[in-house]
Design a protein that fits this description.
The protein is α+β, with helices and mostly antiparallel strands. It contains 17 helices and 22 strands.
Length: 556
């Protein structure tokens, strides 16, 4: 039998995720935590990082890297009150690097927090009735849900189910409260984890709920998904999806992205039991000897979907019904003002790469702070790194509009559809896994793509483009029509052929290209699309229909 990975030993020895984090925090001479504690910190919602732009300079000065911490909020469904927005804004300016980032998992994260400010940050987050529990690490992470609040009352139900699922799958350990909130210290045996066990999951786990016809949460990329089925205006239940995941490793053909399977239909009251059965099955059968093979997608591939469905039915003591019909027509967001059935208004703002920061001519962090001060509704973070000012009374629209205009918060909505829908991960300089730029390169990349589209008369056509600094897939690149996946500084793998609703994987087209090379590789494909497409045919669909794909291996 193969040996367990070192991370499994760290979790087993951690006494319910406590480890020696408290001692590491008190170690003033270094900005870092002990190695084992760095792993455990993730399950508390934070990653240790350093500024890679300064690594060499500091090495030459014989200084340790400039250690800083990323902190991620648990925000199921992406819903935050105005008071919570203001609390997070204050933390961004007092403890972090002056920015708030909206993530592709529909929540907020901070960058640039020093070790000495970690505990005050966590305490202030708690005071805002929020937390960071289980937003990273080998547990179920932030639960996503369709963020459009206007189509029907079912949208509210879906968000509430996301919140219930998030609470249900939280770890039971009190380690978070002991370390960060000065709770009573445990003596003796750690708490029992009825769902996770003492070593939690073999790898990270992601869950979401989609409400057709919008697939804004990219449901097929999730380990566990629920597609809401509405019949006669009411929530009849959910189609269950299992086994999606984006992560891969360059050059390792045993790793690859995978779309989830639709496994059957369940009633709303069965959702939590089915979720527990899925998680515990992965807990017991997921690969703990190879972290690259530890996601649920590989468990299902190795054992078969039929075996997996039978196992979750046995554990949940139910039978899934045949999946109900559904369809998706988009995985993007709707911008501008929209009116809900109850008469309230909702305004979605485009935030490129989700980065809210005050910049010359675009004081966006300040602008949303001023809106939060007068807003009586809530905010919805979307899975596409945008934000919706939700539940605005009609009488307040003029005031919100004035603040949007004064702070140029609508500036990013102008331009091509590819600009409005593009996603980028953080990448350099903070992510330790990044091989190439993503967020910082996105503005230049979009300018180059716009120029190419204009050259072929395609500027106004919808087109999904995503870029990541490494193959882990945080911006869900493998379902985009065009994706750039970082391979080395300034070099990317080019993937093409996804669809416009997140239901098809793209394929690896060409590898290890610099900017000139990937633009040259795209040019004949764009020319062919412009010349030969059928009416309304999207780029990815055209590539498959016209026989230009598959031209390479599956996305990897």
């Amino acid at each position: 039998m193969a040996d367990l990975t070192p991370v499994e030993g760290i979790k087993a020895r951690s006494r319910g995720l406590r480890g020696t984090i408290a001692d590491s925090l008190a170690d003033a001479p270094t900005g870092a935590l002990r190695d084992d504690d760095q792993q455990l910190l993730r399950l508390h919602g934070s990653y240790q990082q350093d500024d890679r732009d300064l690594r060499e300079e500091r090495r030459l000065q014989k200084l340790e890297p400039l250690i800083r911490y990323m902190v991620r909020i648990r925000l199921p469904g992406g819903v935050a009150t105005a008071a919570q927005w203001l609390a997070l804004d204050a933390l961004a300016t007092e403890y972090a690097n002056g920015s708030l980032r909206l993530t592709t998992r529909q929540t907020f994260q901070f960058h640039g927090i020093g070790k000495g400010d970690l505990k005050p940050t966590m305490q202030r987050i708690n005071a805002a009735l929020l937390d960071t529990i289980a937003t990273c690490g080998d547990v179920n992470r932030n639960v996503m849900a369709g963020s459009n609040p206007i189509e029907s009352p079912v949208h509210g139900e879906v968000v509430r189910w996301a919140q219930r699922l998030s609470e249900f799958l939280l770890p039971h350990t009190r380690a978070y409260h002991e370390i960060w909130l000065d709770g009573e210290k445990l003596t003796g045996t750690p708490e029992v984890e009825p769902i996770y066990g003492e070593t939690y999951l073999p790898r990270k786990f992601k869950a979401a709920i989609a409400l057709p016809p919008s697939n804004d949460v990219d449901i097929y990329t999730q380990d566990l998904g629920f597609i809401a089925i509405v019949e006669d205006g009411r929530l009849a239940g959910f189609n269950l999806t299992v086994g999606g995941g984006m992560g891969a490793t360059h050059g390792d053909k045993t790793t690859h992205p995978r779309l989830a399977d639709v496994a059957g239909f369940l009633r709303p009251e069965q959702l939590l039991a089915v979720a527990e059965a899925v998680v515990t099955t992965q807990r017991d059968f997921g690969d703990r000897t190879n972290r690259k093979h530890a996601r649920l997608k590989y468990t299902i591939e190795d054992r078969g979907l039929g075996w997996f469905v039978a196992e979750i039915e046995r554990r949940a003591n139910l039978r899934l019904e045949p999946a109900r019909p559904f369809s998706f027509d988009t995985n993007g967001d709707h911008f501008g003002w929209r009116t809900a059935l109850d008469g309230t208004l909702h305004r979605t703002l485009r935030i490129p790469a989700g980065r809210l920061v005050d910049a010359p001519g675009r004081p966006w962090l300040t602008g949303l702070r001023e809106i939060a001060r007068v807003h009586t509704g809530d905010f919805r973070v979307t899975a596409n790194q945008n934000v919706t000012i939700a539940r605005v009374p009609a009488t307040a629209r003029a005031a919100i509009d004035a603040l949007i205009e004064a702070h140029a918060l609508d500036a990013a909505e102008a331009g091509s559809p590819v600009r409005r829908d593009a996603l980028a991960c953080v990448a350099l300089p903070t992510c330790p896994l990044a091989m190439a730029e993503a967020e910082r390169y996105l503005p230049d990349l979009l300018s180059r793509i716009d120029t190419a589209l204009k050259g072929h008369g395609l500027y106004g056509e919808p087109l999904t483009l995503r870029i990541t600094g490494c193959p882990n897939g945080c911006a869900r690149p493998y379902v985009a029509e065009i994706a750039l996946v970082g391979k080395a500084p300034g070099r990317y793998n080019l993937h093409v052929g996804g669809d416009g609703v997140g239901a098809r994987l793209n394929v690896l087209y060409k590898e290890n290209l610099d900017e000139a090379e990937f633009l040259a590789a795209l040019d004949p494909l764009l020319y062919a699309w412009a010349s030969e497409r059928e009416r309304g045919e999207r780029f990815g669909d055209f590539l498959w229909r016209s026989g230009r794909l598959p031209l390479g291996s599956a996305a990897a």
